[in-house]
Amino acid sequence: MFGYGRNNFTWTGTLRELEGSSPTCLAKTWTEKRGRPSMTASTSSSSGLEVLLSTLQNAGDVESTLNILNVLDELLSAGTDRRIQYMISKGGSEALLTALVNTGRSFSPNYTLLLPLLHLLAKVGHRDRRIGVKAEDAGAALLTLNLLRHNVEHARRAAACLWVIQVFSSSVSTANLIGANHGLDVIYRLIPQYTTKHLHAIKAAIDAFAALLCTKANVCSVVSKGYVSGLLRLYEDWHAKATQHAAMAICHSLLRCLHKVTHSNAGRQAFVSQGGIRLLYVTTQTCLLSKGLESLVESSVQLMRKCLPKTPLPLTSDRSAYTFLMPGRPHDVPDIDVEPDENSEESDDEEAEDNKEADFDDDLETDLSKLRLRPDPDRPKELLPQYNRLCPELSHDFQDLDLSSEPEESSTASSSSSSDEEAALLNGLRFHSSRRGGGRSAASSDSSTSPSGSHSETDPEGHTPAAAQLEARDFHSHSSILSTSPSFRTKDREARDEAPLGQRGEDEDDEEEDADKSHHRTMIDRLLERHGACILHHEPKLYRAAAAKTKSIPGFSILAFPDFWGHLPPPGHESMAPRKPNIQRQKVFEDAQRFLTTDGIINQVVFDLEDSSLQCPSDSLRFFSKFECGNLRKAVQVRRYEYDLILNADANSSQHTQWFYFEVSNMVADVPYRFNVINCEKSNSQFNYGMQPVLYSVREALEGRPHWVRTGTEICYFRNHFCPARGRRRTTFYTLTFTITFKHNEDVCYLAYHYPYTYSALKAHLKVLQKSVDPAKVFFQQQVLCGTLAGNPCPVVTITACPASRSWIDMHQLRNRPYIMLTGRVHPGESNASWVMKGTLEFLCSSDPVAQSLREAFVFKLIPMLNPDGVVNGTNRCDLNSEDLNRQWCKPDPVLSPTIYHTKGLLYYLNSVGRTPLVFCDYHGHSRKKNVFLYGCSVKETLWQSGSAVNTVGLKEDPGYRTIPKTLDRLAPAFSFNSCNYLVEKSRSATARVVVWREMGVLRSYTLESTHNGCDQGIYKGLQTGTRELQEMGVKFCHSLLSVTKDVKGLYSHIDLDHNILDHKSHNCFEDDEPPCVEEIEYSADCPALAGADLDSDINGNTASADEEEEGDEGCREVKHRRGSVGQSQQSSAKGRLSPHLMRQASAETLGEKRNACNAVSVNGQVMS
Ligand SMILES: [Zn+2]
Q1: The dihedral of CA 501, 507, 511, 515: what is its sign?
Q2: Distance 833 CA to ligand 1 centre (A)
Q3: Are the C-beta atoms of residues 1078 and 1072 closer than 8 Å to each other?
Q4: Are the CB atoms for 370 and 687 separated by under 8 Å?
Q5: Which residues contact 932 (CB under 8 A, 6 or more apart)?
Q6: I want to staple 23 with a disulfide (CB 3.0 to 4.6 A). Which of 48, 277, 548, 651 is the partner?
């Protein structure tokens, strides 16, 4: 009997407490019993646990070793993983490995000892990240493999070895070692066809096999030996016959092996060539019919999705269909992406690739000098005075205060100075003009053009506007389609005959009509007169005039109807779309079907941006996208009512697809059409979280409902099997799929990623605004910041209040107003930014008293569209030089990034004359988050968040950067304060926000991010945003600016703050972009690692369910004999499932004696009486 009866020794609590007990005494009793008083562990510094471990390693007699194992198992089974971690920290793994090697290498190992040892090792090793290395060091890896070889006939022993091998395989080198010693072959042979016997051992074999497949070498070996086919046949067999739970577990394990093996390209090829996709497709269909088998569906579908053979996009080149000749570059940029990357075919970790998350903290700037010191200006001081032309408010004398009209733009243009700068910024305009003239070479040499002339938007420009073309070819597709529709024919006739004369007369008075006078009135004009909606700040004819001057790469000659006609927000709110259960599974299934069968598959190109002569079948949908902001490159009819859509890459680039906008017609009403945008690039999307695309129906508009509406069902976004047409085979594409049921036959509809807002719309809008303001009150001036690469003028708008009089006091107040600079739409795909900007602009021009206060308090400089060329040409992210303009702020190139160069120049100028803006904000859209929020800049928060060692105590920082977000949180329903952050990331060091903050010293420098989807907090919770809410956000942003004025109290009297405070509460969202969605992990996770608890239960099952074990096992027989007595010890049987039953009983007896002797505390911590 052991000396457990010490009063000061208890079994309660943690091992740490065990350590705190009297180890010397414990050791003494142990060593006395073992007759080895010279134990090294019996020093006063070692703990009880260490004594146990040390004794274990020193290969004592079987009985005491068994008892130690038993005690350890009791201890580890009772508590949480923390106990095991503690044991590992005290060398538990090494002790067990040593014991294993000592016991296992004898000629005839003692399995009574080995079995519990292996079981304990599996349990502990599973939680020890370094177990593989430790096993190799101890020589235990190959020893265990040998033990397995000798025990292939003994299911129980084999299972124990297999679990240990599985655990060892967590290390790549150990897994390779075992693989190189034919471990895979030994184990593979242990996996039989369907049987009801030894299920534990079989599952252990498959799990060990899967674990060994964590390395490239092992996967290659398995593939080359043809095991993939074998695994498939095994799965087929087990799947067909599996009915009970244990057999199901084997199916799961087999799928796990297949997942691992298909990490490699060769594995996927073997899988496909061996009929894996068809097999899984068929088995999964059975699964779907039987509830009990449903758990296999997920894994099977993912396997199918992963293994569908890579299919190149049906394009001749991945490069954008739009190429722009860059100034100074005689030839197109060599396309490095087009070269097929042969090596990438061998990629083994393709699936894992996308799962790696950027380590946020690593990205934080912790270099205090970079955070605080301002770098030198990026240009000489002499270049700054030119920007005074953009600050007419500083020099304007307001002599015309009594007159009713604003001064002409040309009168303020003081840009006759022909500096190099000016010449450079004009390059775009001249370059484009000459290009239109037919010559592409004269990019920059000619400097004779008058700068002031080219700068003024109202001046006629040096090329033939497309106005005539627009007039003649207006809505070519509509005219043909609409004219065939009886309903439209009627409308047309009505419009033609009955348009009120007065209305026509008015139109003809419009200056914008001048160009049209010589042309006959088109059908659309008549429709407009008859049915046009009254949309605030939108005039279709003004829009058309503005669009005629817009320069695009392909030379657009057609307007998209919604942009021309205008739109109104729909009357009600639009809820986020509920996600249909298992939608992704269903879609992947349908995609797999395309691979397996040709029935009903059409695969015909019905639209090609680059081939306008393409004839499409009369009964297919018709697509079109050659208009401003349009983005659709190709449409392929897959099935009768299903189309694959390919988006055009950003101009001069072969990537950045996300934004789309196209026209679709020739539809049949009430039929669900499935659309698959198959070359999306982001790994996740709000389309998985309730977001819908937007649709505009021409028919609806003509019937008085000109709305962009959120639409689409069965929406889902997932990784697909497409790859680029030529290069970058490793690139992963994602499918956005949605289904639309059109309301009308033969309608013309438009579908878009988000509410479109074109560059022409901005120009028309600014013109309307300019006309709308009261020039006696509002100083509104639109100027050209610079020309873009394509020669489109980039507008800059100044808004402030006219002085009340020309008195010294009023003029002084005007000249000393702080500046606010707002910019937007640097990313063309973020059209929501333009709608927010529209809200801001309209509000600042309005007669609202708050707007008046703001105008009196500030001078607003707005650059609503920093990337006009990108917007025009339907790019998603970049400018025409395929650069993200919001990464160019550190040192923008005057020729390649003129809008950024001159925006920064204007900021430098304001800075140089002591008028640094009080607030700078760049409006953006966010595709992966909900709500609206701000990113700002704070040294302290960045250092705190990064865990930097820099002492921030003495660091002074004005907390004023939080004022606006805090105010917005109270004022703006869509705004979420908790989504804001103020961290300065290295990866964002060249963005507007960071550069304006660091280089200009603007404390309140922000990025305003508006969701493309909707809100998950506040009064808009669960709703998708519309243009109404986006514009409201623009208004609220203006309201929040009151918080930075000195006279806050007075100004706030205009806003009923208290009322608004109650309107919504922000929520806590310090979490990732999204909470886990039901199916989110479907396309990122493939085979979840075996959890510790699973392995434990497998191991425990091996000892508990002795019934199915073979008769030849000695330990087992004895267990059966003694089963009766085992039941007596509840304490032990509940916890100590590791040891053979024989030992458990012995342990129970021991514990019983212990109880009698000490009246102490039980294993569970209960006081024993
Ligand atoms: Zn952006």
Answers
A1: negative
A2: 8
A3: no
A4: no
A5: 836, 972, 974, 975, 976, 1008, 1009, 1010, 1011, 1033
A6: 48
Q: Which run of H or of E encompasses 738? A: strand 734-741
DSSP state string for 859-908: EEEEE--S-HHHHHTT-SS--TTS--GGG--SS--TTTSHHHHHHHHHHH
Burial state string for 273-308 with b = 16 or more CB within 10 A and e = fewer than 16: ebbbbebbbebbeebbeeeebeebbbbbbbbbbbbb
Q: Report the C-alpha gap between 695 and 936 in whole angstroms.
A: 34
In the predicted model, is pLDDT for residue 1063 greater than 50? no
Catalytic residue, from 409, 529, 830, 1009: name it: 1009
Instruction: Outline where 328-475 has alpha helix (H).
Output: 350-353, 368-372, 392-395, 409-412, 420-436, 451-455, 467-473
**Residue 351 reports pLDDT greater than 50:** no
Pairing of strands 634-639, 642-646: antiparallel
C-alpha distances in angstroms, 356 versus 287, 352, 364, 795? 32, 7, 18, 41
- Output the pLDDT for position 576: 96
Phi/psi-derived region of residue 1089, left when phi > 0, alpha when psi is between -120 and 50, beta in every other case: beta
Ligand 1 center from residue 876 Cα (angstroms): 10
Is 1009 among the catalytic positions? yes
- Cα of 577 vs centre of ligand 1, distance in Å, is 24
Token output for 636 = 């392929």
> Could you report the per-residue pLDDT of 647-698, keeping only the tens digit for each?
999 999 988 999 999 999 999 999 999 999 999 999 889 999 999 999 999 9
pLDDT in tens, 257-279: 999 999 988 999 999 999 999 99
Do residues 144 and 100 touch, judged by C-beta distance below 8 A? Answer: yes
CA 886 to centroid of ligand 1, rounded, Å = 8
* Max Cα distance, the chain (Å): 119
* Model confidence, pTM: 0.76
Q: How far is the CA of 258 from the centre of ligand 1 (A)?
A: 40
CA of 834 to the centre of ligand 1 (A): 11
Counting Cβ atoms within 10 Å, is residue 1121 exposed (0-12), middle (13-18) or buried (19+)?
exposed
| Two tokens, residue 734 | 């994602």
